[in-house]
């Protein structure tokens, strides 16, 4: 990736030296736009997101009528969690049109953005479009897994279970298949089936930490407190690795903080949420959870109603601006 980054930068310099205007002939402008958008893709993969958005902006500036420039720009802003720009950019790509694979990818990009925002119906709508004619030939296991997750979030548990069943023949999809099925069975009230699916999830090499959390909660409900505590310890070890590997990402810390809250370790939870909000002051999930550590602490000396309300209002305001709905922890 480093080599590809340098090659594209060199190509851009050869076409347009710093301070010079864009080339006037269409063929050279198109080549320059492709260099920018390809470098944008490389930078996204390298997680150099600030640069990725800059190269995405440059690609659109050079050739605003090329749908692919808007698609990659949208990807860069989505990865940067600047969702309003990502949505507008993806929508503009749809308006410009393009080949079927690109249009499918744009709808899928919108589905992921709306999913991250918690707008489940909008995510479902765009994902469904990406999986219907004329895009059937491009369906992959990731889309099916996401569809099952959305069905689960919409309370359609049997639909979620049925959606993932065809994926069982694909070894690389088994982790998410069992995890989603476990969540569905747990939501439907069948704890034995749910526990079985979570155990199968944990047999795979790549195990999502939340599988340990879900299994621990079920074991607690079934009265096996010793096994439940061990599952929570396993979950913490897995989250620790994620936090270490992603020190600049607020999500792993927020997820680990939520585990600390579940296990009544409020001080540790507050520290994780506080660090997450420093990494991204507008990460409203961390703000909302940080509010709860000040309102729900079992230690009266740690409660601070005013601070809890201020953080809750801040989380609500940001989620309203971004999503149109309020994250209500007030």
Give the termini separation: 45 Å
Low-confidence runs (pLDDT<50, min 5 residues)?
none
- Which band does the percent of strand residues land in? under 5%
* SSE order, one letter for each helix or strand: HHHHHHHHHHHHHHHHH
- Quickly give the structural class: mainly alpha
Count up the helices: 17
Shape: globular
Give the % helix: over 70%
Rg measurement, Å: 22 Å
Average pLDDT rating: 87
Q: What is the makeup of the main sheet? A: none
Compute the number of strand runs.
Answer: 0
Keywords:
single chain; 330 residues; mainly alpha; 17 helices; 74% helix; 0% strand
A few lines on this structure:
With 330 residues, the protein is mainly alpha-helical. Helices cover 74% and strands 0% of the residues. It has helices at residues 2-15, 26-45, 49-62, 67-79, 83-96, 100-117, 120-130, 141-153, 157-164, 174-188, 191-202, 209-221, 225-245, 250-262, 266-279, 284-295, 305-323.
